[in-house]
Amino acid sequence: MVSNGIASASVRIMGFLLILLPAMHAPVVAAEAQGPLLTFDKREHRANPDISNVPRIRFLTTLDFPPFEFLDAEGRLSGFNVDLARELCDTLGVTAKCQIQALPFNELQAALESRAGDAVIAGIGVTPDLRAKYDFSRPYLQLSARFLSLRKTSGEPITPMKLAASKVGVVRDTAHQAMLKAYFPNVNPQLYDDRPAMLKALKAGDVDTVFGEGLALAFWAASGEADSCCAFRGGPYYSGDFLGEGMTIMTREGEPLAAAFDHGLLELARKGTLNELFVKYFPPGLY
Q1: Under DSSP, is residue 167 helix (H, G, I), strand (E, B) or coil?
Q2: How far apart are CA 235 and CA 252, in angstroms?
Q3: HSE-CB for 257 with a 13 A CA cutoff
């Protein structure tokens, strides 16, 4: 499942990031101890909107985005987003009303508009155009950028001087290329047409380090294809301008579900359930 996850997740996440290239001004932020899932303060208060009049809640997702959504060995719909939807329903006390349906990714928005579903939980990138038409929950998972290096250099610190003296690979025309240029301007990056070509060059030693989407790099580094060649170098980097808001749940505008999901996500964070799901589905050391 890991190898399939690398391919599918890489394609979806790359598409998620390509729409986020404009308007990049905020500084990159290195990870803090609170981790990837706490995009809000657990101490805050969020009222639970009344959704008793909502007859049912149909979550729409996909089948081809492991570890977020996939069919397990027994043909059951599984994944981080699937389990999260179920936990939200349980926390909000509406389990009996909840359904989860998988559709092709390019059909999700139309299904929501036609009321064939009520909430999309499938890693759709938030854009100004979408915000004008839909409501979104708070982010429940931040996206990070990471440096992945050959093991012989993975222990070296990340500094502009160190990076300028090494060969750093990045996929051309991506948010990560723009991010690397903005915050490490002295680096002369080696550009690749896609992530597989970049990772092949890293394993072969043509570059010392690559910069890219943390989740995809983590799965690759843990796979048989990498053959334990490489390890993360330094901590994760976050930037709302470059990497977007993160994973959210999209609903129709003006309905109470997005606010209810905000309340549910806060409760799941307080109970530790969000982090439990993260540990279940993602490689150790990702964040």
Answers
A1: coil
A2: 37
A3: 28
The residues near 10 (Cβ < 8 Å, ≥ 6 apart) are: 195, 213, 216
Q: Strand pairing partners for 120?
A: 60, 250
Q: The tokens of 10 are what? A: 């890489």
Give the residues across from 192 on adjacent strands.
171
pLDDT tens, residue order, the chain (287 aa): 334 444 444 445 544 443 333 333 343 444 443 445 556 666 777 778 889 999 999 999 999 888 999 999 999 999 999 999 999 999 999 999 999 999 999 999 999 999 999 999 998 888 899 999 999 999 998 888 999 999 988 777 788 888 888 899 999 999 999 999 998 999 999 999 999 999 999 999 999 999 999 989 999 999 999 999 999 998 888 888 888 888 999 999 999 999 999 999 999 988 989 889 988 998 776 66
134 half-sphere exposure, CB direction, 13 A CA radius: 25
Task: Say how far apart CA 270 and CA 257 lie, in whole Å.
Answer: 20
Residues in a beta bridge with 83: none
Q: Helix (H, G, I), strand (E, B), or coil: what is residue 236?
A: strand
pTM of the model: 0.77
d(CA 69, CA 101): 11
DSSP code for 239:
-
Nearest to 81 by CA among 63, 68, 64, 98: 68
Report, in angstroms and rounded to the nearest whole number, the Rg of the chain calculated over CA atoms.
19
Pair 250, 136: CB distance under 8 Å: yes
What structural domains does the chain harbor?
31-142+245-281 (3.40.190.10), 145-243 (3.40.190.10)
